[in-house]
């Protein structure tokens, strides 16, 4: 993403400027200022609170793989991605001792551990021509990490692919040591970067054009800005970050999906939330190419 053409001056320099001004006034000037400036009335301390991270649907492809590990790749091809979640309460205090579960699809849009999925590398995701595959018994791109004293849980994985009906996303849960989930949500990644990777790299490339973007994914739109991850480039990987603001006394809603989800994209949420566009609708809603698609991909662009 390009940097802003101009950045406002740092407010950190303001106290120093005032300090230098006071030194220039000398003792007489300081005495005069003290006479003019009334004593500040004491104010009660108020702690600003952070907005809770939005809960979203769990989706049908979650299971506890029982793997406490940072590297969840298991040899899956794709662009290296480091994921760093910072878990805090509404006062911004780290919630050390919690656990974060992370799971997501591979470059072809397939999750580990389930039958009846379609490999996104083949044509025909909306009919019976696509290749049905099974990943039952596999645990790639799944793992858990404890939250450290700094509030951070870190994973090494690959950049996720996509499948019809959904924007690019990572699934995650925040659980306490007893296994109770306080947060179930999804992390959405920048669409301009998604587009570049999916169009340039063989592991991700498709003949189809993605129809569902952050700008028209129903789950992303309902959850809002608290689930939008930031991505920066490191020497040998991308680094995705998201702060998760969690109520440690709260409980994430349960969904009760079957262990054998139907083929194709995950079904809709059962908790009453507005569902994402069904397969096919997103493709019609999102522009296929040109300046209109660029505007749909890049936040703030109006062409």
From TrEMBL:
Residues 58-190 form the Intradiol ring-cleavage dioxygenases domain. Pfam families: Dioxygenase_C. Residues 250-303 are annotated as: Disordered. The keyword Transmembrane helix does not apply. Keywords: Dioxygenase, Oxidoreductase. Residues 281-303 have a biased composition (Low complexity). InterPro entries: Intradiol_dOase_C, Intradiol_dOase_core, TAT_signal. SUPFAM superfamilies: Aromatic compound dioxygenase. PANTHER family: INTRADIOL RING-CLEAVAGE DIOXYGENASES DOMAIN-CONTAINING PROTEIN-RELATED, PTHR34315. This is Intradiol ring-cleavage dioxygenase. It comes from Cupriavidus campinensis. The lineage of its organism: Bacteria, Pseudomonadati, Pseudomonadota, Betaproteobacteria, Burkholderiales.
């Amino acid at each position: 993403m390009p940097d802003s053409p101009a950045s406002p001056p740092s407010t950190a320099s303001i106290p120093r400027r005032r300090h230098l001004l006071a030194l220039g006034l000398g003792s007489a000037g300081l005495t005069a200022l003290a006479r003019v400036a009334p004593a500040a009335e004491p104010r009660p301390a108020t702690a600003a609170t952070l907005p809770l991270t939005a809960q979203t649907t769990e989706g049908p492809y979650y299971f506890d793989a029982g793997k406490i590990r940072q590297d969840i790749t298991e040899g899956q091809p794709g662009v290296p991605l480091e994921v760093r979640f910072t878990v805090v309460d509404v006062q911004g205090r780290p919630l050390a001792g919690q656990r974060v579960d992370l799971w997501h699809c591979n470059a072809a849009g397939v999750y580990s551990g389930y039958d009846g999925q379609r490999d996104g590398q083949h044509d025909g995701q909306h009919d019976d021509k696509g290749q049905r595959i099974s990943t039952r018994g596999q645990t790639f791109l799944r793992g858990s990490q404890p939250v450290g004293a700094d509030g951070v849980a870190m994973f090494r994985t690959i950049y996720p692919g996509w499948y019809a009906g959904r924007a690019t996303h990572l699934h995650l849960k925040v659980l306490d040591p007893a296994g109770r989930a306080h947060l179930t949500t999804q992390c959405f990644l920048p669409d301009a970067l998604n587009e570049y990777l999916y169009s340039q790299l063989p592991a991700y490339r498709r003949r189809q054009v993605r129809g569902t973007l952050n700008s028209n994914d129903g789950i992303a739109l309902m959850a809002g800005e608290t689930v939008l991850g930031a991505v920066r480039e490191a020497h040998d990987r991308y680094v995705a970050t998201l702060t998760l603001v969690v109520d440690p006394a709260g409980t994430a809603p349960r969904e009760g999906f079957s262990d054998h989800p139907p083929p194709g994209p995950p079904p809709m949420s059962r908790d009453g939330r507005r569902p994402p566009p069904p397969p096919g609708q997103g493709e019609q809603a999102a522009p296929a190419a040109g300046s209109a698609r660029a505007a749909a991909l890049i936040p703030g662009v109006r062409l």
